[in-house]
Amino acid sequence: MLSMKKIIIMLILIFFIPCSTGCQKRSKIHIGIAEDQSSRLMGVHKSLSNGRKLAMQNSKGQEYIFDLVHYDTQNDPENTANNFRKFFQTYETGIMLGTPSVECAQVAKFVADTWGRTFICDAFQSSIVENVSTTLLINQNPVQQGKLIARYVVNNLSKKRVCVVYDSTNEIYKSIKQGFYQEGIDIGATVMEISFMGINSIDPNALFAKIMQSNADSIFLLSSPESFDNMLKIARNDFNIHSDFIFSILPEKLEIDSVWNNVFFMIPFFEKKDSYVNSEFYVKFKNTYGINPDYYAALGADEIYLLQYLMAAGKGINNCYVGLKNSSIPSEKFLTGIKGFDRNGLSVKPIDILKISNNELLYIETFWHKVTRNDM
To answer: What is this structure's pTM?
Structure first.
């Protein structure tokens, strides 16, 4: 018979040794997320959050676990700043994500910079990275979008004279215009500019009279989507302008008739393209949440994929802003096509090209081209 001492030793071997090798406690990596959970941008937060949760399933079996710490900014810059301070005071390591609100992000970036902590931002504005060193913009940025639009219009559509009509009261439209103008001039196009002060100030007749004088072979209109249909009708029907029109936004509701033919949409991401709809992420998201994932769901997933990529490469995430600036990363890992970050911390991404032809909206391609310079 086995002695009691031998039985105890056997029990230790059975229960203790396997856990000491195979059941090790995974290290926690703290990720603060400050977003509007209760007001105007709560829908964006929900999409980002669901995308992150689904992407985190890829972390199972790893030696680490992402500990997501959520804060409700209520879309208020002061609350956002306090959320950032609270996270940095509570956790000595870890980074911040989120804040798709430009107003909130512009305040939060200085808090992150003061603490020397990485902030990976979802806002859609190029100036988010200005005057700080620790902030990265993972969303597409308007200047880059403008540069890629210029490349496509000049190189792929063979347009040499482009008239850019833009709302000068909107910072995003001004940034897209800036990027388009820089790249267009650099690659030999003639770029003419006509600005207006808000949608309610537009005099379409005076506007298209100027455009007629410019002899443009395409018109790039940077304005709110609700103005598109009326502007097209006046251009086509009253001024007989049948040049290509280019828009940087795809309206949520689009009623297509003949005036919309030869219209291009050159946008950050098309949610209905086959490569996204047929992706494993898209199918799992729909099965899990019962709705189709939008762009922000993909962006939330890409945040996690980026962190997983850094961990797998042994680079860590705490000061990842240092290594990610002016870097290239394998774009096939990401739903939104991230190729890296420029020296300022802005993401380098492609755009999606759509066209209306024969009264039908067609996805043409996802377009990428190296731009001539990355300065803003």
So the answer is: 0.89
